[in-house]
From TrEMBL:
Organism: Plasmodium yoelii yoelii
Spans traversing the lipid bilayer: 214-238
Annotated GO CC locations: mitochondrial small ribosomal subunit
InterPro entries: Ribosomal_mS29 (IPR019368)
Listed name of the protein: Small ribosomal subunit protein mS29
């Protein structure tokens, strides 16, 4: 998902350590002047840098015939899972056959720490917990980049049930002010009116009117959930 150059930078420390070991075992290195030593180091660095091989799914697997095969490769082979996710999203950006809806609830939790611990984050402000945006899926979902998709709509919502509400700044993520709305929860009466409207518009059908309160509880009174459900229904109806 990132440029090959940045992926190769991961190996910089290993390359430097290898160069130091090779120089330590080279009796002729000490006989070189400063310029020659520097040139020798650069040649070694370039040699190892050029020989870094980034994993490629085609080196081990045949060309996937569809996205389902690609997903199964990622599920069954953890070493290639991240790569498969990035390839999947790249395909979704370019395809035009199907309309895509990306719906993300609790969007703001992608910006906080996760429940997973790592020694790499000890003695940091994260207290050992891995920030959620370090993971592959949250990193991709945080990108406000629907303009890069040929046929896509993205809807996200914030949620404050697990932490105190604070001044959320969507503009820092590249989200324009005109793309944000502050919405309150639906009341039961509003929910009933909304469902009736969908029914009258033939968006939904065979709906059990006696289960209105049950479905109202399932949505947690969230307009976001209702909007997403309505959008999906409209897509299905349109197709």
């Amino acid at each position: 998902g990132t440029h090959l150059f940045y992926n190769k930078k991961i190996y910089n420390d290993i390359i430097k350590k290898t160069i130091e070991e090779e120089i330590a075992n080279d009796n002729n290195y000490s006989k070189l002047n400063d310029i020659e030593q520097n040139m020798y180091r650069q040649k070694l660095y370039k040699f190892y840098q050029d020989n870094i091989k980034i994993p490629n799914i085609l080196d081990k697997f045949p060309m996937p015939q569809n996205l389902v095969e690609l997903i199964n490769i990622g599920i069954n082979n953890s070493a290639y899972s991240n790569l498969c996710v990035y390839i999947l999203f790249e395909h979704l950006k370019k395809q035009t056959q199907f309309p895509i809806l990306i719906a993300v609830d609790q969007f703001n939790y992608n910006l906080s720490v996760s429940e997973y611990l790592s020694i790499n984050f000890e003695n940091t402000k994260y207290n050992g917990y891995i920030p959620t945006y370090y993971f592959t899926i949250p990193k991709l979902l945080l990108q406000w980049n629907t303009s890069k998709y040929k046929r896509c709509v993205k809807i996200v919502s914030t949620c404050w049930d697990r932490e105190n509400r604070r001044n959320f700044r969507p503009d820092l993520l590249g989200i324009n002010k005109k793309e944000t709305k502050t919405l309150r929860n639906f009341t039961l009466i509003e929910f009933k009116n909304y469902v009736s409207h969908l029914f009258n518009q033939n968006v939904i059908y065979n709906f059990d009117i006696n289960k209105l309160e049950y479905f109202y509880m399932l949505t947690a009174h969230s307009l976001f959930v209702l909007t997403v459900l309505s959008f999906i229904c409209n897509l299905v109806f349109f197709i």
